[in-house]
């Protein structure tokens, strides 16, 4: 038994490189996503459908979070100078409407307060407190009013607060001690 000759060995075509194996499905997926986006009319059709106010164009996953700097109030002020006192932003996948003038704030908080009163439905509220049953996560309505009444009369009553005053005083002392130690260390 020696080395087989070239006539007895079947010559196979070379295996495609790993970059082609990754690149081809990625390109096909990208073409499918772009095609579907164009068939739906793009992001502009969605904005016209819901009649949302103008705002900066969001990025696909992060939305407009890249436009919010270390001082969010200044970033939003700069954006409102460009887009007006009422603008729409996207924080990740959450749409946000920003009212940045006194008149717009009055419109939302006083004129149409009942329309904008409720909390957003998030997975955190659903799974951490058994389908929005906690007062902090529940939606505005009869259940929320009853839960708030129980909180105010039972948990936040003067008697209950007075009974836990020593705990609050000890926590304040511990915080001040920590601040003093941190200041001495620097």
3D architecture notes:
This protein has 186 residues and is mainly α. It has a domain of 70 residues. 54% of the residues lie in helices and 6% in strands. The chain has eight helices and two strands; from the N terminus they run αααββααααα. It is extended, with a radius of gyration of 29 Å. One of its GO terms (molecular function) is heme binding. Belongs to the cytochrome P450 family. Keywords: Heme, Iron, Membrane, Metal-binding, Oxidoreductase, Transmembrane, Transmembrane helix. InterPro entries: Cyt_P450, Cyt_P450_sf.
Q: What share of residues is helical?
A: 40-55%
Query: Pairing-aware structural class of the strands and helices?
Result: mainly alpha
Note the beta-strand portion: 5-15%
What is the number of E strands?
2
State the helix count: 8
One letter per element, helices H and strands E, the order comes to HHHEEHHHHH
Which stretches are poorly predicted, pLDDT < 50 over at least 5 residues? none
Largest sheet: 2 strands, antiparallel
Envelope shape: extended
Strand order of the largest sheet: 1-2
Q: Work out the radius of gyration.
A: 29 Å
Oligomer: single chain
For the termini, the CA-CA separation is 81 Å
Mean pLDDT: 84
List its salient traits.
single chain; 186 residues; mainly alpha; two-stranded antiparallel sheet; 2 strands; Cyt_P450; monooxygenase activity; iron ion binding; Cytochrome P450; heme binding
Secondary-structure blueprint:
Blueprint: H1 18-40, H2 42-50, H3 72-83, E1 86-91, E2 94-99, H4 102-111, H5 123-128, H6 142-155, H7 158-163, H8 165-185
Antiparallel strand pairs: 1-2
């Amino acid at each position: 038994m020696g080395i087989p000759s070239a006539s007895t060995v079947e010559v196979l075509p070379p295996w495609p490189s790993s970059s082609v194996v990754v690149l081809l499905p990625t390109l096909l997926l990208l073409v499918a996503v772009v095609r579907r986006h164009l068939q739906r009319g793009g992001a502009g059709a969605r904005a016209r459908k819901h009649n949302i106010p103008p705002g900066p164009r969001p990025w696909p996953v992060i939305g407009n979070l890249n436009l919010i700097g270390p001082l969010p109030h200044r970033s939003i002020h700069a954006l409102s100078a460009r887009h007006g006192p009422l603008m729409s932003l996207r924080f990740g996948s959450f749409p946000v409407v920003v009212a940045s003038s006194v008149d717009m704030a009055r419109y939302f908080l006083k004129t149409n307060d009942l329309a904008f009163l409720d909390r957003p439905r998030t997975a955190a509220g659903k799974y951490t407190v058994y389908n929005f049953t906690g007062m902090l996560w529940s939606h505005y309505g009869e259940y929320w009013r009853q839960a708030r009444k129980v909180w105010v009369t039972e948990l936040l009553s003067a008697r209950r607060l007075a009974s836990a005053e020593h705990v609050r005083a000890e926590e304040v002392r511990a915080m001040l001690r920590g601040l003093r130690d941190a200041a001495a260390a620097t």
